Each structure stands twice: as structure tokens, then as C-alpha cells.
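Researcher: Structure prediction, please.
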Amino acid sequence: MDESGFLTIGGLFLAAILVAIGAQRLRLPYSIGLVVAGLGIALVAPGTAPPLTRDLIYFILLPPLVFEAAIQIPWRPLRRELPLLLALVTLGVAVASGVVAAGMHYWAGWSWIGAGLFGVLISATDPVSVIAAFKQWRVEPRLHLLVEAESLLNDGVAAVGFAVLTGIAVAGAGAGDVSLGAIGWQLLYTSVGGIGIGVGVAVPLILVAGGTDDRLVEVTITTLIAFGAFLVAEHLGCSGVLATLAAGLVVGNWGFPGTISDDGRRGVLNHWEYVAFLGNSVIFLLIGGSEARLPIGVVVEAAALAIGLSLAGRALSVYPMTLAFARTRLAVPWAYKHVLFWGGLRGALALALALALPGAVPERATIVAVVFAVVAFSIVVQGLTMGPLIRRLGLIETDAGHA
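Model: Predicted structure follows.
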């Protein structure tokens, strides 16, 4: 990297700092400010910011974002909510993807494979702006858990579904024969294999961490776990997202209580919070910069249709699925349902998957532009209204109880 590259990175980080300070004073999600700042930089000084590529998002920025969220999810509450969460991220993702795919095929004229891939990747949610609002206004722990855990599991399922459909698209382009048995095996291998690799990478390295109380060594070990689980899984054709999620759960629920020292635990949490801040800052700034370079105006009708369909699909995946648990101990209050629906923002993973679309997909260029438009809408419009929605629904906790 030359001197100009370092200056660019320094400029991006400076912009992220200024935006974060301004957003905090204005009590707004900093992700929205970063997107706007990135758009402004691209318009004022075109070519300054680097392009947002699939490898940059998927292999460098995504693993720490998944890992940082996973290490803070407690296992016992997660296990209690698991039947509800699994319904949301399996049947729910299937319904949402199907609604979007059918709509884009029949109303936008896309091929079934292009519409299907778009439906799957756009179902991947990103709770960054929502979690930022939760931290600003304290909400009930169960709501926080449901939003964050559903998004993480949702990302893993969406990534697996995308990998399977990509294989079908490539096989179809090569006149290959894809059987239902092969699809089922790939689903099983990609998902179960990813989880197994995540646990398999995390456990021995956590045991190594037990031999030291040096927090710097412990932080380094967790870095190896986060990236190691992701890269090994991807290399073996499994889900890197699920591998990193599983590894993070192991570190947070087994490594923290009994193996990693108290000082190391604080160091690990502070380290990953910082890394996640940098990663999100880069992503949102470059999203804004990319918006200025993409021909969004050419696909405005398709983008508007995709936004409407993604919201409809999200509604059909949240409300009926949660309603099925209405008479159980996992019943979800209506206020929670509204937050789960409107808080299903799209972000980094959807962009990474869109940029990874194979050339065999006829609508590839259009899909990439539409995905950026949907992501920008969700970050700005949905992200900006999350705070008022939480307040209106009375979900903000006070010192004396509930607001």
C-alpha cells in the first residue's frame, strides 16, 4: 500500500470519528450519518474512497462483525428462545425469499434463478442501527436478544441458501443436472459443517488460552478463532458465517466463564467492540460512496418494487411465525413483533452476496444496483425511525421499571 492508500484510510477513519461524534450529539444512529458522509465524499471528491468489493466485506469485515455479536449472546436465554428463532430463520426466511423472488420474477421480469438469488440474499438482515438504538435507549433484554440472535441466525441461513442457489445457477449454466438429493446434501453439509468447524476451531484454542492470563495473548487467540473458523469453513465449502457464529457462542459462553481470565475478558470485549466499530464505519462509508457510482436511477422502478416486496416478505415472515407461538411460553408481544419487522434492516452480508453473484445470472448488474438501493433505504429510512418507534411502543426501560 502506497502513501495515498494510507492517507485514504486515515481520511475514512477521521470521517467516521466526526460522524460518530455528531450522531451522538444529535441522538441519531451513526450508520445513517456514515452513509450520508460516504455519499458526500464520493460527490465532492470522486474516486477518493476505494470500491466496496465482495472480498473486502466477506473475508475482512464480516467475520469480526459476526464474532463480536456472537460472544455477547448468553446461551441459556438463547436456548430458551431457540424454537421461536429457528422458526423465524428457516420457515420465515423461506417465506420472505419466496415472496421477493415471485414478485421480481412476475412483475420485474427477472429469471427465476436471478429472482431466487435476490430473494435469498435480500433476506439477510443487519441489526447494527437497531442495536445502536437499543444501546441509546435501554430496552428489555428479551427484545434485545430476539433482534440480535434472529439477525445472526438469519444471516447464516441466508448465506447457506445463497450458496446452494449459486451452485444450481452455475450447474445450470454448464448444463449440469442438479438433483433434490444433491441440494439436500449441500444444505446439510454447508450448515452442519459450518457449525462443526466453528466449534472445532474454538474449543482447542480456548484450551490454549487457559494456559495464560496475558490479556494480549487472549485477545490474539480470539482473533485467530474468529478469522480461522470463517476461513477454514469457507475453504472446505461450508458456511463461514455459521462457523464464526458458533465459535463466538463457544468463546462467550464457555471461554469467558471458565478459561479466559477476568482481565482478558474485558480486553476481548473492548477489542472486538472497537474492531466492530471500525468495520461498520468502513462498510457504511463505502456504501454511501458506492451509491454515488451506481446507476440507481436506471433501476429505480425495480428498486421501489424490491423495497416493497422485501417489506412484505419480512412482514409475512415475522407476524405469522410469531403468531404460531401465541399460546406457548414463547409468546411474543405485539410491540416486539413490530420491532422485529421494522428492524429487519439490510446491510453488509446482502451486499457481499450480491457482489458474489456469478456471471451466469442474467440480471447480475441490475441486482447489484437494486441491492444497494434496498440497503440504503433500510439504513436511512428504517434506521432513522427505529428510535421513535421504540419510544412510541413504550419499550424503553427506566430505572424504576418500564417506560
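Model: Confidence is low (pLDDT under 50) at residues 399-403.
Researcher: Thanks, that helps.
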